[in-house]
């Protein structure tokens, strides 16, 4: 059976006298499967996604700087597909957005950052480590107690760029975050030889040979000691990282076994 095809995009070219305009509609959804049960190798550590050029579709100033118009939900064309996904127990829709942009190149086309889904900030730190039972409240000073307010840590976090470079391209880097476990070494054993494990060496004239000396060294009571390991829960990133050539007025799918 073919793997799930998880990122659904519709791009429609809108010609004008000034420049071409593209209406872009995107659905991001995930599969209801255990990521560790999928026949894939998932690294525990992923490099951070570069969001230095990315902006939010909800940011009107960023949209204006890129000549982007957010489209109302009444104009969406993939509502039937969303309804089918939501009615299926195997899928969860994380995001459904649409906007209009020009035919800019890679250097000037908008890069949108999308965050959606469950907020894990009450369970995990931004580096993915699990929070302990201790409170995140500092000691009171002069009767004032400072409380650290965690930033949202969304289940979906990534970026998407649509641009023209002779052809129409889509570049997607999307992380799906999900709790996982890993084993770490918490302490390594110190290799100590038990008292009396090595017998004395006879250094008399009759045992001057190195071979004879080596034969008089007897090791005893040496046991193999395994390092102590601990199983830790952490927030793991499962990444979709793809670049795809597109055609306008077509619906495109990006393959990934978990999400898109």
From TrEMBL:
Signal sequence, renumbered to the chain: 1-18
Taxonomic superkingdom: Bacteria
Keywords: Signal
InterPro entries: CsiV
One Pfam family hit: CsiV
Protein name (database record): Peptidoglycan-binding protein CsiV
